[in-house]
Amino acid sequence: xxxxxxxxxxxxxxxxxxxxxxxxxxxxxxxxxxxxxxxxxxxxxxxxxxxxxxxxxxxxxxxxxxxxxxxxxxxxxxxxxxxxxxxxxxxxxxxxxxxxxxxxxxxxxxxxxxxxxxxxxxxxxxxxxxxxxxxxxxxxxxxxxxxxxxxxxxxxxxxxxxxxxxxxxxxxxxxxxxxx
Length: 180
Known about the structure:
Layout: H1 2-27, H2 33-49, H3 57-85, H4 110-129, H5 132-142, H6 147-154, H7 158-175
Helix pairs in contact: 1-2, 1-3, 2-3, 4-7, 5-7
């Protein structure tokens, strides 16, 4: 099996690398396509090692590469947003978390921007109460990975993943007073 997996990985590498390069060029991201390719190929190896039945390795690699790229792009975008939210207030006051938010919420009037900011702040606070491992599962699910793919990557049982994601979603909805 090990030899077959190595052969498949060698055949997938050019496709994965080309997709990662196209993504980095298209988005202008300062990401290393080699790192993305390595991550995807390691995920393939782990999936095979854990007994996942990947019927079409090229389709799998294409989807996982795309998901990995989008996840990295979202993470970079989130980090830029957080740095804007934590910027110093133009008047020189330090520690004002709302500084710089006017550029984030350009649509609507002031009350709409304030509501958007408050909703984002509350959502971030709720997410901080969710365990890091569950946040990672939520991120993988939001990036489009199926429960089977997440199970292959993490090594956790599918039912455990589903239960963790459901509990986190319930906690988030309850914090906003929304019905399930």
